[in-house]
Sequence to fold (149 residues):
Amino acid sequence: MESLKYKVIKTKKQYDQYCSALEGLCDMSKRTPAQNDEIELLTLLVQKWDDDHKTFGELDPVQLLKSLMAEHGIKAKDLVTSLHVSKGLVSDILNYKKGLSKEIIRELAAYFKLSQEAFNRPYKLVSPMNIHLKNASVMNTEKRIASAS
Fold:
């Protein structure tokens, strides 16, 4: 009986190996149909692990965004172009002064190939009126996103 090249991910080590393999395949400029199938399979396996283990669960949406920016080598000015927003808005979002709009959540989810739920979670904002107070903040509430059905 032939052994499977990839199996359901059961350990963090296996997850890291599959992520590395997926990254290597995605970086290839020309791929065969078999390599494209391999990318699809690895993507499903990695997404299943992410869903089961909530790998982004500890991060608030801004921390997640900053982490993804670092991982992908993206700067704030790159987000300005990708999201079609002003530098000021990107700066305010990254500095917890403004919340993520529904449209920005959709754009970020599509850009980083994540579910919208990763960015659609409440987190604390710094209120400009209360910036002089040590523990003052306001809550960015959860936004309802209509499913695209």
The longest strand covers residues 123-125. The CA atoms of residues 60 and 123 lie 6 Å apart. DSSP finds six helices and two strands in the chain. The beta strands are 123-125, 138-140.
